[in-house]
Amino acid sequence: MKKAKTVLDIRRQYEEGVRITMLTAYDYPMARLLDKAGIDIILIGDSLGTVVAGYDTTLPVTLEEMIYHTRMVVRGTEKALVVADLPFLSYQVDLPSARLNAGRLVKEGGAHAVKLEGGVAMRDTIRALVDIDIPVMGHVGLTPQSVHRMGGYRVQGRKEEEARRLLEDARAVEEAGAFSIVLEGIPAALAERITAELHIPTIGIGAGVHCSGQVLVTQDMIGLCDKFSPKFVKKYVDLSEVLGEVFGTYVREVQEGAFPAEEHSF
User: Fold this and answer.
1) Co-location of 252 and 169 in the same domain
2) What is d(CA 225, CA 51) in angstroms, rounded to the nearest whole number?
3) Whose CA is closest to 201, among 69, 3, 5?
4) Of 213, 139, 123, 214, nearest to 177 (Cα)?
5) How many structural domains is the chain composed of?
6) Are residues 243 and 224 in the same domain?
7) What are phi and psi of 33, to 5 degrees?
8) Coil, helix or strand for 63?
9) What is the Cα–Cα distance from 39 to 43, expressed in whole angstroms?
10) Helices 63-75 and 95-107: angle between axes, nearest 10 degrees
11) Is the pTM of this model over 0.90?
12) Which range marks the domain in which residue 66 is found?
């Protein structure tokens, strides 16, 4: 019987002042690696659109794709809380479809919670999901599903008026019942202010060190995505270079007849 973390465990960790770790996974092997490493939360992000499927944005990702990838991650996870993104247009149309689609991520995908983007405008949607016992993680600041309105992936909240709106968004997410909130692409000082004011964990990505926890897209931090190179990403290893050498060695050994050797043959 799996004993995964729950939103109550995340809450307890936050209250004890232990910083929360979150990374993305989109398949079984990566989920197993992250889970064994002790990651608190594994996110099946709609970022799979850019780092796995090769799209330029997250917008083409479908609910069916999110369910499919969530199933794989859940099978590879024993201890971490599993959160799945609600993709674009799966929750913005109306409350009944938001309930149904979030429910499918939980029922068919096996997610423990869902994440959605937006603040004040999504208050009723968050509340509607929480009211039917689906835990919700919010997401404000640089929201990738709003890429066209924002004119690209730009830092949000530099101006005082923008900062005020983001603070209102964060308050709305908390008031609606979300158990945590992602702060993406905002000045560190603003993230610190939001974190100090809220009573739920803030998970930062490009939001400085003062958040309650941090998240990165795993492919970014291990060098497996060359589409974007945000300032906030720390590349812990460049696996693209390592794997390139490995694959090149394989090609050479096959061509030279060095593989398979006797020990690889029956």
Assistant:
1) no
2) 6
3) 5
4) 123
5) 2
6) no
7) -65, -45
8) helix
9) 10
10) 30
11) yes
12) 7-235
Do 92 and 193 lie in one domain? The reply is yes
What contacts 33, CB < 8 A, 6 or more positions away?
Answer: none
Of 1, 101, 80, give the one whose Cα is nearest residue 36.
Answer: 80
Q: How far apart are CA 40 and CA 35, in angstroms?
A: 8
Consecutive H or E run containing 137: strand 136-141
* Same domain for 74 and 149: yes
Q: What is the pLDDT along the chain (266 residues), one digit of tens a residue?
A: 568 899 999 999 999 999 999 999 999 999 999 999 999 999 999 999 999 999 999 999 999 999 999 999 999 999 999 999 999 999 999 999 999 999 999 999 999 999 999 999 999 999 999 999 999 999 999 999 999 999 999 999 999 999 999 999 999 999 999 999 999 999 999 999 999 999 999 999 999 999 999 999 999 999 998 777 788 999 999 999 999 999 999 999 999 999 999 999 99
Can you tell me which residue has the tokens 């599903």?
145
Residues marked as catalytic: 184
128 and 152 both lie in a single domain: yes
- Check which CATH number belongs to the domain holding 176 and give it: 3.20.20.60
1 in a domain, yes or no? no
